[in-house]
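Re-run with default settings, no changes from the original entry. Doing this only to confirm the output is reproducible before filing.
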Amino acid sequence: FPVPTTQSPIPLPRSILERMVQSSDRQLNLINSLLEAHIGEVQGLSLQCQPVQLQMVVEAAIADLEPMLVDNQATLINLVTADLPLVNADPTQVWRVFSNLIVNAIKHNPPGLHVTINAIPQDDEIYCTVNDNGVGISQQQSDRLFDLYFRGGSIRNSLGLGLGLYLCKQIINAHGGEIGVKSGLEKGATFWFTLPMTSNQVNQL
């Protein structure tokens, strides 16, 4: 019988291996997001609501995304103040909303983007905005942007972004709030959403 020869491993550059790992991570995240979106649609999201200071949530989201901001030469201005009334919300889920909206703005636009985050009281709610000065979104895209399987032709990684926006809608709706976008081609985009204030904060107004 012939003696099997030992095959030496084929060397691969580290950069290729890193890209393979990143691609696998993206695919896994996409599958997990699809599963989460389906479960949320069927069963509803489970929230752990508590009094939340939005400034701390926004600052945490910005800190986590700092490498992406640097890589894309993006400038981010946070106008959310510490004296803002508290919201009754799940801090982890609200962090995800801010994070997804910031990532959406960066991925949708060329480098050098300016992003501004703000939040203001309106009646018994806090009105939050994530505004950018990018390429904007057509009315046709805006009408379907939060749909689960919508793919915007000009948006890189559009399926993943569509999932992110769909999950944002699920999260905000579960809090009893609303979410939407104001935009137009070459006019930038402003994503907005509302969150309920805590009951004692409403009574103090």
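Confidence is low (pLDDT under 50) at residues 153-161. The CA atoms of residues 93 and 171 lie 7 Å apart.
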